Amino acid sequence: MNIIEVKNLNLFYSKFQALKDISMDIKEKKVTALIGPSGCGKSTFLRCLNRMNDLIDGVKIKGDVIINGRNIYKDRVDIVELRKNVGMIFQKSNPFPMSIFDNVAYGPRINGIRDKKRLEEIVENSLKKAALWEEVKDDLKKSGLSLSGGQQQRLCIARALAVEPEIILMDEPASALDPISTTKIEDLIFELKKNYTIVIVTHNMQQAARVSDQTAFFYMGDLIEFNDTKKLFTAPENEKTEAYISGRFG
Ligand SMILES: Nc1ncnc2c1ncn2[C@@H]1O[C@H](COP(=O)(O)OP(=O)(O)OP(=O)(O)O)[C@@H](O)[C@H]1O
Q1: Contact at 8 Å (CB) between 75 and 64?
Q2: CA 20 to 30 Å from 118, out of 11, 109, 198, 210?
Q3: 140-152 average pLDDT score
Q4: CA of 43 to the centre of ligand 1 (A)
């Protein structure tokens, strides 16, 4: 089933067109990777899926993004609800300057959950789902900022999971991490897709090939090819895709 349907999406930063008539259906509980050379529009596209571009001055968006049957740009949509349902993980982990517990409890508290036991449950479950619990369970009062880079990124994933999203957007979540931490994030993505839909921007083609079910190749604002990951990397249909995956540009 398609959880996200993008139809004829165009995005302008003032006069510059960064996305050109993009249409793409994203399947539920699968990992979709967005690849392409720097500046091709991957992050811009990702941010369209939870209206993060609304925050940028001079942005104009035309077209439709339909999530669970609701057009997030046209129907009356509560942005806070939307971002709860469509969580986001950034390249640079950004824990709040507070304890591990408070980082994960932050969203649930904003949503009005006050009961201590309930919060403890949510924090424990979210940290378990983010594969961080075992490493931090003995000192949840420790500052989130005192964790290693890889742990901080998993803390941010736990924080996103604590408000029960359906979709998680990841913008190069492992590009600042060492190989071992990267493997942990990749293993986690594999685990998470049992319950969540994941859309991930990555510069790393091996990573896209390892973690994703479907891959979209962008080039200069165009969606050049969108295919099953295996097919895209072994028998691409477009010659630009082939040139890119074989390292001839980008
Ligand atoms: N806030 C902005 N204002 C103006 N132009 C922007 C803005 N953000 C991005 N752009 C331009 O839009 C195009 C797409 O940028 P985007 O960041 O989406 O590309 P990307 O494929 O994610 O690149 P990278 O891999 O380098 O992160 C680029 O030409 C970029 O310069």
Answers
A1: no
A2: 198
A3: 96
A4: 7
